[in-house]
Amino acid sequence: MKVIVVGGGAAGMSAASRVRKLVPQAEIKVFEESSYVSYAPCGIPYYIENLVNDINSLVTYTPEFFKNERNIDVHIKTKVLKVDLSAKQLTTVSEEGEKIEDFDYLILSTGAVPFVPDRKWLEVNHVYALRHLEDGDALKNDLKNLNNIAVIGGGYVGVEMAEALSKIGKNVTIFEMRRVMPNLDPEYSQIIKQEMQKRSIKVFEGFTVKAIENTGEKVRIIGDSEQPIFDAAVLGLGVRPNVELAKSIGLKLGETGAIWVDETMRTSNEYVYAAGDNIEVNDLVIKGRKRYAPFAPEANKEGYVAGSNVGNQNVRFPGSAGSAITKFYDLEIGVVGITEEEAKRYGIETFPVKIKHNARASYYPPQEEVYMKIVFDKKRKVPLGAQVIGKNVWGRLAYISLAIENNITVDRMFFSGVPYAPPFAPVWDSLIIASRIFYERV
User: Fold this and answer.
1) Whether residue 314 lies in the annotated active site
2) ∠153-157-158 over CA atoms, to 5°?
3) Domain-located, residue 59
4) How far is CA 87 from CA 83, 90, 105, in A?
5) Structure confidence by residue, pLDDT tens digits, 3-27
6) Nearest alpha carbon to residue 143 among 236, 49, 26, 215
7) Exposure winner among 198, 209, 238, 396, fewest CB in 10 A?
8) Dihedral over Cα of 156, 161, 167, 173: its sign
9) Which position among 42, 52, 76, 253 bears the catalytic label?
10) Number of structural domains, the chain?
11) For the segment 148-170, what is each residue's pLDDT rounded down to a tens digit?
12) Is the per-residue pLDDT at 386 higher than 90?
């Protein structure tokens, strides 16, 4: 059996490794267009701020490791140009020229691409969209002699890059067409905005960038009225699934615009699987809906599932609730599931609970807070989504995520064994208080 994987990121290498374990005699090739495989692009902001000193620290395994230890033939700096499904062949191009490869099974893990409203923006000097590790290297080298940096977009990437740039002494300005972290409720978004302003970061909300152009060696950001000028701009407008290859070979795309797959990661063609940031999966909150969840944990598991099923197993990926976490300086930001507004659009009667509570026992220093909102389904008595901001967020977000994904009811949440010790949580944790409020009032 010959298996070809297109894309050497988390999903691709997880899939290739799984096939190797299950089918020792298989011939496995991976084609990756960048210089790295098994890399962590989510670590680029920490490389920019010098928390990570070597870009190679963001690489889990090298191509040589996969070749020598797992007998997986990895080809970097190699792009797949086209695929002929009827002939089960694909064409690649590299420094060595074009080659034709045969396959029995194809696994697409082409990932996501940064969203750029106008591709001309990328032709402007000192403008960066971060996808590959090479992009992080290029930005870091450029920043050495630049001071005033614009960050376009106030989502996850924008927030993380604003912190990174601020920590290395740059003057940072964020432009966001809605509000900072627009997937949060306005009052929680404002907490983040205020924290940014405390760190001397300028925040322009409700600012739509119409164009970006060079003025000499500077970068001009053109909006409706203002036209501020910076030394460089970093684009953090989110990502879109990289589906160009899938579209060219006629694979079915789903309702989110990503590649449609079933729970085994099989596409609309029985010999082609897909995994990672280029696919959509079942939404574990709204039954029957699909979700685009471009997150590393999902990608690794989807790759595992795709490789398992190519290896003749029967493994299924149930879906995602979209659990995600980031931070800005000391402020931790966690989100999972759907908002109250989304629930209303689906005709769900909700009971939202908002809490501002101690992150640990009130007498245990330092005295820090956690802000939490949990949206409950009033009829089914289960959580649908949550926003958690403050300190000690990760564990609370993990708890709520598990509750959402498994339809754990409010009474079970209230009586669950959330651990207690003064350094970690108050005896009545915010999680228990939220479920208690619902338990007593509904």
Assistant:
1) no
2) 35
3) no
4) 9, 9, 12
5) 999 999 999 999 999 999 999 999 9
6) 49
7) 198
8) negative
9) 42
10) 3
11) 999 999 999 999 999 999 999 99
12) yes
Per-residue HEC secondary structure of 153-178 comes to CCCHHHHHHHHHHHHCCCEEEEEECC
Domain containing residue 334: CATH number: 3.50.50.60
Q: How many other C-beta atoms can be found within 10 angstroms of the C-beta atom of residue 161?
A: 26
H-helix segments, 9-89 = 10-22, 44-48, 63-70
Same domain, 296 and 346: no
CB of 396 within 8 A of CB of 334?
A: yes
Do 347 and 433 reside in the same domain of the chain? Answer: yes
Q: What's the rounded mean pLDDT across residues 309-332?
A: 97
Does residue 301 surpass a pLDDT of 90?
A: yes
Instruction: Give me 27's structure tokens.
Output: 């011939």
- Structure letter (DSSP) for residue 251: P
Cis peptide before 294 (omega within 30 of 0): no
Amino acid at 23: V
The alpha-helical segments, DSSP class H, found in 34-132 are 44-48, 63-70
Token readout for 276 is 């990672």
- The phi and psi torsions of 56 (rounded to 5 degrees) equal -70, -15
- The stretch 73-84 carries a mean pLDDT of 97
Contact 233, 129 (CB under 8 A): no
The amino acid at 442 = V
Q: Is the pLDDT of residue 242 over 90?
A: yes
The token pair at 292 is: 């685009």
C-alpha–C-alpha distance, residues 325 and 289, integer Å: 23
Which domain, by its residues, includes 179?
A: 116-237
8 A C-beta contact, residue 303 and residue 279: no
Amino acid occupying residue 320: S
